[in-house]
Amino acid sequence: MKLIESESELRRELEQLGKGEHRVGLVPTMGCLHEGHLSLIRKARQQNDIVVVSVFVNPTQFGPGEDYASYPRTLENDCVLAESAGADIVFHPDAAEIYSPDASTKVEVEGEITHTLCGASRPIHFKGVTTIVSILFNIVRPDRAYFGQKDAQQAVVIRKMVRELHIPVEIVVCPIVREADGLALSSRNRYLNSEERRQAVCLYRGLDAAASFLSSGAEGGTDPERLKQVICEEIDKSPLAKREYIEIVDAETLKPLRHIEKGHPALAAVAVRFGETRLIDNIILRS
């Protein structure tokens, strides 16, 4: 496996590996790799001839007061883990390699899809995400790109961007990887102290309670407001949890639902803070 830090070197290496004749999979990450990231790399290894993992903490998707400066950077360990999962290349550019000093071009998906859920409290976040992902797509020119279901809104937004800009890349969304107690793996979990970590499982318990309530056939089980109440009740059992949002939306459009229809998936999504740490999670609900 090779660690590459410049666009020009990456292009040369991909040519030497036979890009054009072989399929390329890209796994975009901000580093601090964990088993969730590794599951994406393994899937990319199964489906492609060449696997590129980008490790880049993207400044344009962090708002004022967010954790850009303190976001964990563990490149040496990331390279070891990426290689063990099957990566051929780790692309780790400097911010100056990606954004010129006078950069003023942004890629933005407009509308409710980026203003709801996480977009409501992080107004510049998705513009930064779509900009960096489109840059990486232009540099790597992958056949497939891999994202995790934990960032469900991000995946929906990127699929829309790819579709509307006619970018020739297949977006593959892989299942959430969880700890034994249900907590979704996240690089930000390391911010939690021991008591916050113990209570953080309330996100999954709330989502799981909603899925169980829906599948039980109980009265009101297909009512999003009733399901949101079920989630709230479970999360509120953890005194350190401060709810940011709890929403049930269409899984493809992210529009609010009045009723969960049979055969049509809904997305139950939550964001909860434990002190300064913001965690997100979601689950697909099917009637």
Say what oligomer this is.
single chain
Shape: globular
User: What is the arithmetic mean of pLDDT?
Assistant: 97
Stretches with pLDDT under 50, minimum 5 residues: none
Measured as a percent range, the helix fraction is 25-40%
Descriptive account of the structure:
- The protein has about 290 residues and is of the alpha/beta class.
- It folds into two domains: about 1-175, HUPs (Rossmann fold, 3-Layer(aba) Sandwich), CATH 3.40.50.620; about 185-285, Pantoate-beta-alanine ligase, C-terminal domain (Pantoate--beta-alanine Ligase, Chain: A,domain 2, 2-Layer Sandwich).
- It is built from eleven helices and nine strands.
- The chain has helices at about 5-15, 35-45, 75-85, 95-100, 110-115, 120, 125-140, 150-165, 195-200, 200-215, 225-235; strands at about 1-5, 25-30, 50-55, 90, 145-150, 170-175, 240-250, 265-275, 275-285.
- The strands form two sheets. The chain has a six-stranded parallel sheet with strand order 1-4-3-2-5-6, with helices on both faces.
- Helix 8 (about 150-165) links the parallel strand 5 and strand 6 (about 170-175).
- Helix 10 runs antiparallel to helix 11 (about 225-235).
- The chain is globular and about 60 Å long.
- The protein starts with a strand and ends with a strand.
- The model has no long low-confidence stretch (mean pLDDT about 95).
